[in-house]
Amino acid sequence: MTEEITYADLEFNKSYALENIPKPDTPVEKGLPSSSSTWRLAALTFLILCLALLLGMLALGIVFFQVSNNFQKQIGSLMRNQETLQTNFSKRMQDMKDHLCLKGEENNENNGPSCILCPASWQWMGGDTCFYISMQKRSWEESQRFCSLQNSTLLMLKHRRKLNHVLPRENTQYYWIGLHKSGENSWYWTDGSAVLTQKVDWIDLYSSSNCGYLYREKIYSYYCTEKYFCICEKAAVKLSA
């Protein structure tokens, strides 16, 4: 009886065997990282880029501020230098005026003092004209060319009062002036204006000669080939104060 195997025992053993069968290990899942890890990495990358951009903008701002500051300093320095140069220029001009001015006229067309300037070796005896007496005798035509080379003309005495302004000269010498005859008995100044000799006691012209000269306080005429000194004239430079 003891060796008989009952149905209940078989069922029990079967159940026990099934329960003791070893189970295989659960395989580890492989694949892509989770979505939360991906977003964290993207956010970190974006944050780093933003910080880099912010630092770059900050560096550019510092450089721009430094450049702008230096530029403003340079502009200020240039303006100060310009003011200094203008002051020095004005002072030098005033010094030149004080040394070069021959005389100032208290009343002129500008209602203020003026400065009269004449070239070196030229003289001013009043009015608005500079005079030059040649040191060499020449014919009338040669004298005319000489004055032209000095950017001037032979002296023209259209009015007697101008004689009062002609610089002192030797009374024993003759001086060619800008007067010549054209045609039969027509006399002209070198600027083309006609000479009015009617009732003029300080002009004595001879019909047989063609060029005018000055002797003392009177105008005469003689042959143009004669060698005389000459008087040139040009406008003076007038500077208003």
**Spatial shape:** rod-shaped
Number of helices: 3
> Structural class of the secondary elements?
alpha+beta
Q: What CATH first level of the domain at 120-240 would be assigned? A: Alpha Beta
**What's the total count of β strands?**
11
Strand content: 15-25%
Give the N-to-C terminal Cα separation: 158 Å
Which stretches of 5+ consecutive residues score pLDDT under 50? 104-112
The largest sheet is:
9 strands, mixed
Mean pLDDT: 79
Portion of residues within helices? 25-40%
CATH architecture of the domain at 120-240: Roll
Provide tags for this entry.
241 residues; alpha+beta; Mannose-Binding Protein A, Chain A; nine-stranded mixed sheet; two-stranded antiparallel ribbon; 3 helices; 11 strands; 37% helix; rod-shaped
